[in-house]
Amino acid sequence: MRTRCQLARPLWESEELSEAQDQIDSAMFALELLGDSDRDRKLAASAVEHRGMLKGARGEWSMALADFAGSRDMHRAIPNLYGVLLQTYRMGEASAKVGDLETAHRLLSEAHTGFVEKKRERLIGRSAFALAGVLHRLGRRDEARELYVQSLRRADRRRSGFDLARVHDALAELDTADGHLVEAEEHRTAAQTLRRRNGLV
Prior knowledge:
The protein is mainly α and 201 residues long.
């Protein structure tokens, strides 16, 4: 089950959605074979999460949100607090995608605070990025900028070219909205340079 879920992800990221669906379907079929141990229950919750992520890749964000909520309930029942936090984050991202910005703000704030407490470096940066995007859409650009800068620093520490490039893109958009056109162009150039250097173009 775990291997099929892990294989599905690069497939949907390569837009091979039907092949990814085959892997997820096989993983979900295997749910019936799992027992009631904590390990098996975590595996089941992870499979439901991956099913939701594939739905998100298809743009079916309302359906993805339902899977993330279901997975979070499964993690709560174990209990697996990290799993609960991760699904809260995913629910926040999905809520933003369907335009429910207030709910997205609440969920992403909760997840970000939890990741900070647990010192989950990568997810601190990613949740800061997602929360900043929501704040920008809510018109709270100063707060968004602060979180984007925080996310940029963390991505730089981890040397994550993917995360660095998308934060620079977001800062370019923010600077454009604020009328800081020179700074916006600098961020766009930085993003392009990072993508070329990391083979992302």
